[in-house]
Amino acid sequence: MEFVEYIKTPKVDKVTLHRPYTMPVEGTLCVTGHHLILSSRMDSEKRKDDEKEELWMLHIAVDSLEKKFVGPIGYLTLYCKNFLVIQLDIPNVEECLNVASSIEQLSSLGSLTMTYPFFYRSTFERMEDGWVAFQPESELTRLKSEDWRLSYVNKNYDISDTYPRAVVVPKTVDDDTLRAAAAFRSGGRFPILSYLHKGHGTAILRSSQPMTGANSKRCREDERLLNAALGVGRRGYVIDTRSNANATAAKSKGGGFEIESHYPQWRRVHKPLEKYTTLQDSLAKLIDACKDSSNTTKWLSRLSASGWLGHVKELLNVACLVAQCVDKDSYSILIHGSDGFDVTPQVTSLAQIILDPDCRTIRGLEALIEREWIQGGHPFASRCAHGVFYTGKAKHVGPVFLLFLDCVWQLHQQFSCSFEFNEDFLYMIFEHSYSSQFGTFLCNNESERERVKLSQNTTSLWTYMNRPAILQKYLNPLFKTNQGVIWPAVAPQSLCLWESTYLRWDIDPAPRSAVWGAVLDIMQEDKEARLKVNELRRELAELQKEAMQKGLIGE
Questions:
Q1: Model pLDDT for residues 48-66, shown as the tens digit of each residue
Q2: 269 forms bridges with which residues in the sheet?
Q3: Cβ 76 vs Cβ 100: under 8 Å
């Protein structure tokens, strides 16, 4: 079906746009195959000074809409996945209905290849290809260890359709052992390496649950694989992100957990974290509280009732436990829940940010997201298909990745000088994970991406990001390299609401912008003062040298 069949009214004049903390703008509304565009009637000179007078929104960014009619005027309210709410006043009811119908259909196209990333053609100069910037081969060289190797046992995705083609495994384990271990793990997700501690050589591994079943089956190859990851004479912990009751109940459905008599070098610990469905309900309550300005007296109680900061606290707690075991106690860790592609990457990623200063740089965080989330098989297409405003049935939706970004922001707040990027960088990644002109967060796994030839047909977000002119906007002016481990406080009073995301459109951004403007001015003045000091020191040294040559002063 062609786009034109969805667009009954391609252009409407005299439409008024209402946005938070912006004056209403009247202009011409255009509906294209992928965008909703409003161009104001301002003259060109004024428009240069205020680019916000234009609206340029992807249909896929719209989560839901409401229609209201008063006399001949239609009021169209758009609820976006990034929590923005805007209103369009359309002077004709029929045109309003047509525009609403077009947005509803074009925001939920059935075919992936009809979405905008497959039509977007970049005009900027490419410094590098983001699709090949973080390949497993280059990540392996960072390990600098002879005890691990890259296996292509899954190169055809027949072992696990949610794992990447290449994974890092112990060097002493052959591919036949990996195949047998994969058959024993849910979805074929056998234990693979996420992180190797540079000092102790201890590892963070990830997998899915073992399929022990009601009869407590065992798999010698799986046991051999895990013991090989430990090394001789070492011990490790299995951190199961389900409760003991849920892990036990999974046995009746063919799942289960590692039985300690079969894995004597490993001790199992249950640290339950909530699934994506619970997170979706929690985020919906949080955003509902943020959008309700009618009752500010109950704001704190509604924030607490949403449970969102509780999820942040629990996730940080588990990540800190993993980091402590690896760094202070020299234990290796295996992390899994049921499937191993939701809560598992949350924990493995946060633990690495706590432990590894490289993950606190822009490029390091990009590599981490690529490795643990995108290549690791987190189902972005399912989890980020809709936001909290969606009114239909969304069975597999949940803000798993957003919760991870929130926890990174909490670390950033507590260690603001230890991160190369600013909080706008985190928000930008959040926005692109839900709607984007780039293909980075499309599909659910690497296998699906290869089937639609994503790297050939779309542009990577990292290709756009990793250019000096763009990176400049996301640099943290307070950054000072910190090679140490960062240990965050996780008590409730130490955690904050990520206002610039959840309240981004509900509080005036001017004060925050003014503060950061002042910070940047101070940083610039400090830089100039330091340069002047160095220049004066050089002049003083030259004058002293000249005075000694003339005998005016002694050495």
A1: 444 446 889 999 999 999 9
A2: 239
A3: yes
